[in-house]
Design goal:
about 150 residues; mainly alpha; two-stranded antiparallel ribbon; about 5% strand
Length: about 150
């Protein structure tokens, strides 16, 4: 993963250099730490999407959900955010909370994890029916009525 992303360099400059980091600076750039940054980025952009739709006001849970289910982060927006390569471009929807589910493979080199592949998309024709069947079984076991997408 590493720290070679403008977004993470900004965090080091504007947060850690000012003594405001939430944890040891040595954690910055590790796989777990970067996953936290990825989740924060997705949350912030989901909120931004909701605020563009519903206005700059306190949002309800349903409005935030709408924002996340209409989230589009393009390669251009990732570059603008300083997160190019940190996550893949993603489009979320009510039917697809994964945004396609692309992954990168990593390998331990004795000191740190290193990406050894580019973003790889799953075989959705194979994977999606398995996900749907598993979700339907879980909902049935728990007595949950699945939400239908518009």
């Amino acid at each position: 993963m590493g720290t070679n992303f403008p977004l993470i360099q900004d965090i080091l400059t504007y947060v850690y250099a000012r003594g405001k980091g939430a944890g040891p600076e040595s954690d910055v750039g590790t796989g777990f730490w970067n996953r936290g940054v990825q989740r924060g980025l997705l949350t912030a952009e989901g909120l931004r999407t909701a605020m563009r739709e519903f206005g700059h006001q306190p949002l309800t849970g349903a409005q935030v959900q709408w924002g996340l289910e209409h989230l589009t982060i393009t390669a251009a927006s990732l570059k603008e955010l300083g997160a190019e390569g940190l996550i893949s471009p993603i489009i979320l929807s009510c039917r697809d909370h994964e945004g396609g589910g692309s992954v990168k493979f990593q390998q331990w080199d004795g000191k740190q994890w290193r990406a050894i592949s580019d973003w790889i998309a799953p075989d959705q024709a194979l994977v999606r029916p398995l996900v749907e069947a598993s979700a339907a079984k879980y909902a049935q076991e728990k007595g949950i009525t699945p939400r239908t997408c518009p």
